[in-house]
Amino acid sequence: MFQACRTLIKPLQSGQILKMATVAEGQRYDFVVFGATGYTGQYVVEEVSRVAHHDWTERNIPLTWAVAGRSKDKLLNSLATARKETGLNLENVAVILADVADQDSLNRMAAQSTVVINCVGPYQVYGERVVRACIENGSNHVDISGEPQ
Q1: Which residue range or ranges hold the Saccharopine dehydrogenase NADP binding domain (predicted)?
Q2: Is 148 part of a structural domain of the chain?
Q3: Which of 55, 56, 86, 149 is a good FRET partner for 66, with 20 to 30 A between their CA atoms?
């Protein structure tokens, strides 16, 4: 079982996973929070943390999820902030590098997710690329960028 799990990938390239995750090869994360380092993204990371913890402890339903964005350091900081705010252990949350300027990285991200929660905005400028990746890779898309444009 553990051999089928994704392991640390070095050197990290766009669209690849940074650290050990609880999803087996060939399976998808339930959620990927894309744009996890922005204002809206940070809020979503904290809320998904709470929901995933509740579903695991209260309902025995394991939710697998990851954060995604351009900067490994900022994504790790987002998880650290969420850990501080929620008091929850987020060590099993994977980090995926993806950039709206790199369609291949968006495709790799979408291929690893059942639902992409897109916090990158403004949607008018960046949304179509993420939606395209989701459609082409069989993932669902939710836009909550919060941008008025």
Answers
A1: 32-145
A2: no
A3: 149
Indicate whether 84 belongs to any domain.
Answer: yes
The residue range of the domain holding 29 is: 2-143
pTM: 0.82
| Distance (Å, whole) CA 128 – CA 100 | 10
Domain count, the chain: 1
Is residue 131 within a helix (H) or strand (E), and if so which, with residue range?
helix 123-136
What pLDDT, in 10s, does the model give residues 5-24? 233 233 344 444 444 344 56
The full DSSP string for 49-89 is: HHHHHHHHHHH-----EEEEES-HHHHHHHHHHHHHHH---
Residue 149 lies in a domain: no
- Confidence at 148, pLDDT banded by 50, 70, 90: low
| CA gap 88, 80 in Å, rounded | 10
Query: How would you list the strands of the sheet with 113-118, edge to edge?
Result: 94-97, 65-69, 29-34, 113-118, 140-143
What pLDDT digit, counting tens, does each position of 82-120 carry? Answer: 999 999 999 989 999 999 999 999 999 999 999 999 999
